[in-house]
């Protein structure tokens, strides 16, 4: 699909650190995607929508809050009745400064090109978000008011994530530490389950309750992040990298990587690798 580029210099005036907007999404199928050099967050105030990237279709419903990093081609399409979206565009430097000061921010605004982060807000949480958004909309577009909105929001999300982690059984939390080792995640979901010492079905139910992910989802995320580091930092061939993370089927490797980063492994290497001799 055709991709166009949006730049913060064309949206944010001098001295502005964010742009705030409300809109109704078109139900017309997007003819093009767009990438951007800024961070962004939006939430669906009501209705349904779909976030489209090169390798993914993410369904969205009322209450879904989405964090977008730069360099990920995407488009939004409304579905069904009118879909109202609230959007905040963030100057790239401001988010990077926040990540430097508060590393927890990075889990919501990950590296450029990463898959979007989606969290769901219930009715009470949406009411709180709407109140904070009204204050942000009325405020000067400066760092002070941007942080007054972002920090309580992200701190609340981080606290919710911590509560979920604290309810995680000890056997699972230990297994999740061990599965960071490529020797273990190379075996896929089976490698993770083996570290738990429990039946696969029990591990899957527990992970779904605690993390909202299946063992395969969790392990494939580790695999793709490891592959991305190799693509950026080494001249290793794609087949070597895929084999080292336990994926012998290159088509499957490409599908997983594209779903995670919105581009093929080769495109990712070309975009992010610098100063490394490329394999012949």
Q: How would you characterize the overall build of this protein?
A:
The protein is globular, with a radius of gyration of 20 Å. The chain is α+β, with helices and mostly antiparallel strands and 280 residues long. It has 12 helices and 8 strands. Strands 2, 4, 5, 6, 7 and 8 form a 6-stranded antiparallel beta sheet that branches. A two-stranded parallel ribbon has the order 1-3. Mean pLDDT is 90; it is low at 275-280.
Summarize the structure.
The chain is α+β, with helices and mostly antiparallel strands and 280 residues long. α5 crosses α7.
Q: Based on DSSP secondary structure assignment, what is the total number of beta strands?
A: 8
CATH topological fold name of the largest domain: Jelly Rolls
Alpha-carbon distance between the two ends:
29 Å
| Helix vs. strand class | alpha+beta
Rounded Rg:
20 Å
List keywords for this structure.
single chain, about 280 residues, alpha+beta, Jelly Rolls, Arc Repressor Mutant, subunit A, six-stranded antiparallel beta sheet, two-stranded parallel ribbon, 12 helices, 8 strands, about 50% helix, disordered C terminus, Homeodomain-like_sf, cytoplasm
